[in-house]
Amino acid sequence: MEKSPAEDPSKAGKTEQQGAEANAPKSGERPDQGKAPAPDHYRPDPQHERDESVIPAPDVANAKYKQPILAQPPDAPTGLRLEEQAKVAAGVTAVIKSMQFSWSEGGMSRGTKGLMNMNQKDGFDCSSCAWPDPDDHRSVAEFCENGAKATASDADDKAAGPEFFARYSLAELSRMTDRDQNNAGRLTHPMVKRPGDNHYSPIEWPAAFQIIADNLNSLSSPHEAVFYTSGKVPNEPAFLFQLFAKLLGTNNLPDCSNMCHESSGAALSPTLGLGKGSVTLNDIHEAEVILVIGQNPGTNHPRMLTALQKAKRNGAKIISVNPLLEAGLNHFKNPQDFMNPLRALGALMGDGTQITDLFLQVRVDGDMGVLRGIMKHLFEAEDLNPGRVVDRPFIDKYTTGFESFEQNIRNTSWEDIEEVSGISRAQLLEAANIIGTKQKIITCWAMGVTQQRQGVQTIQEIVNLHLMKGAIGKPGAGTCPVRGHSNVQGDRTMGIWEQPTKEFQDSLGKEFNFQPPYEHGYDTVEAIKAMYKGKTKVFFSLGGNLLAAGPDTEVIAEGMRKQKLTVFVGTKLNRGHLTTGETSLLLPCFTHLDVDMQKSGQQMTSCENSMGVVSQNKGVLLPLEGQMMSEVAILCGVAITTLGNKINIADWVAMTENYDVIRDHIARVIPGFDNFNEKLRRPGGFYLPNGPRERKFTTKNGMANFSTTELEKHHLEPDQLVLMTVRSHDQFNTTIYEYNDRYRGVHGERRVLFMHRQDMAERGIEAKGLIDITSHFKGEKRTVEKFIAVPYDIPKGNVAAYFPEANPLVPVGSVAKVSNTPTSKYVVVTVVPTLALNSTKEYLEARVAAVS
């Protein structure tokens, strides 16, 4: 057997030549998944009761007067300009914007080199969304506008070094907008804020590691530490991060997945046996019907539009279910068509490809009603056409629970379905007729579903639809949760989970010769509560921005202030770095596109995309001058300094010098990663095992399980509305690139609230009028001020605002059932003209005095 690259230094960082595509599955084929069982994290019932005690609502509106360091973005207007809502996504404008961002951040040379190597088989994985790359041929420009922005931001040639932090205090930095913080430049030197300081100042790496070690080793319990992770972190450092936490003795491993697709995993694991989607990119191309539910691909996953366009050209029908008719759900102009002589003129002059055949403008949190209505129609069609609509052979062979599910759907009244969804019975019949006799069906969903109160149950209804149609485990059919960050799925596979399985822990303990903890740790919501209540003393963040990403911004801020130590490993400044514990460390690391040179040569890392393909990151740009380190090197330095002789120091040194050593450990711990180093060097990477993809349902009973859910109706007070948070087109997750949202016609401003015109009229609110928004939860109120009302095509009774600006309205106690995901897609609010509109100097002075 050939030696692993870990044992042959001459192979370190080497890959097979791009273009060897023999292993790539052809359209309609199942990919080679290997023989190992699928590595599922089955979600058991929690082993401990979640903290149900009430955290008092913070004084959101007055927080800016109480604390010198702002946890919320500044509320000063930045210059709103409104245009018509766009009906077409991408096109020439997207190409121009991509180039502008790339060249303005890193310069023409660095920017272009980054773009040309992004998502290539011998390049690096885009650091934004987790949409998969083609298995076979890839375009020379295999990127989208938002990927270009993310890469341009990573390629930034400006430095935010010691001089920058000497110039600005933490309070002054907090008064910058989130855009200006990100655009300040790359972090280049390790920095420390000591007790009583109001500036970050330089520190040497060994001293920084010692501060972390001293604080961790002085804890009375390892559970007083929280280890938070961003979905941008590649597999290798993610594996080390969870290993370090468990060597310390805790499973306090909250991550961004707790706030996004946790509901997907909680729904898919018990029903299908794997908390991941079952389809491949080729399946999208083969599908006859695609449902896109609670997702805005034009902004959040733009390359998905290329796949939808290809499906449309192959004859697919697309049903879109969303409260907003987004540009990407309407029409798409593929920039790649400009390079095709047969399509260039049409792409330039026309409206592009129509994406949606049927648009269902659902009420916020009403998707379960839509699914119930479609399935009720399908059962009625089956009664008229026995054996042509419901796949009884599949149901009898592979599933359990069908009878209870069928009765539940048939017993649901049309009145309840229409009330919950806001969609008429006739419109739902249109959707059912499209699905009808088809079996090649794919359902895609994202945060618009997972962050509902009944997100888990809604996804279970998606699974029910697929099971009743036999639309899973074959080409062109299956489930497709679309992940939002480059490696958020891979981090979970690597063991970043507060509820690890016994099998995973046993394997990890055997590999590293220690007894890992088995009790459940804190997820993100529970970690926020624990920090707020002073139960923890150290918060260690590997990437990410919990302050801006999480619910109840001021609760998170208060929790951060109660920590003895906060540690932030990152690439650029964000607001979360400024609200800190007594001591705080800001540690600069490499990005996906930075060349990572270690003792054995250039290193590569890996990511897992939404469809279970693991592929490489190999940087192409020299890092800026400074003292940045790789995430792997930082974690190894922390582990060696903290744990000393309790670990095999030589092994941790070897992992720093050659990441192939890490991958050999992973290969022995996690099923599906056998021969990891060899398979990662294949052009395009490799597929992980996926049971549902092959109709192998690795649930407890070995069957695919129908679910019987409850359709809940919730009543609002006459003046109340339901708020959902969304992204703008010029942001990715919490990173703000600009103040614009081109597709929705918003320019120069982010503090806006999209409202139905009738809702505005009923409240005496004018277009562009200043408003205050108050959320209501269990008798508590949270208020944000000085938003701007924007009339928009949104269901009456619903409103939408951008996060992180609207996150202070999301109560930390308002979570989805089972998954404990914050309900950012269901916040009950009232809206009034701003009380501060006619504020006098005396009024403002009185407010300051009241909170002093």
UniProtKB/TrEMBL annotation:
Pfam families: Molybdopterin (PF00384), Molydop_binding (PF01568). InterPro entries: Asp_de-COase-like_dom_sf, MopB_CT_YdeP, MoPterin_dinucl-bd_dom, Mopterin_OxRdtase, Mopterin_OxRdtse_a_bac, Prok_molybdopt-oxidoreductase, YdeP_MopB. Residues 186-567 form the Molybdopterin oxidoreductase domain. Residues 1-57 are annotated as: Disordered. Residues 1-14, 27-53 have a biased composition (Basic and acidic residues). Gene3D superfamilies: 2.40.40.20, 3.40.50.740, Dimethylsulfoxide Reductase, domain 2. Its cofactor is Mo-bis(molybdopterin guanine dinucleotide); [4Fe-4S] cluster. It comes from the Bacteria. Keywords: 4Fe-4S, Iron, Iron-sulfur, Metal-binding, Molybdenum, Oxidoreductase. Residues 721-826 form the Molybdopterin dinucleotide-binding domain. PANTHER family: PROTEIN YDEP (PTHR43105:SF4), RESPIRATORY NITRATE REDUCTASE (PTHR43105). Belongs to the prokaryotic molybdopterin-containing oxidoreductase family. This is FdhF/YdeP family oxidoreductase. It comes from Hymenobacter nitidus.
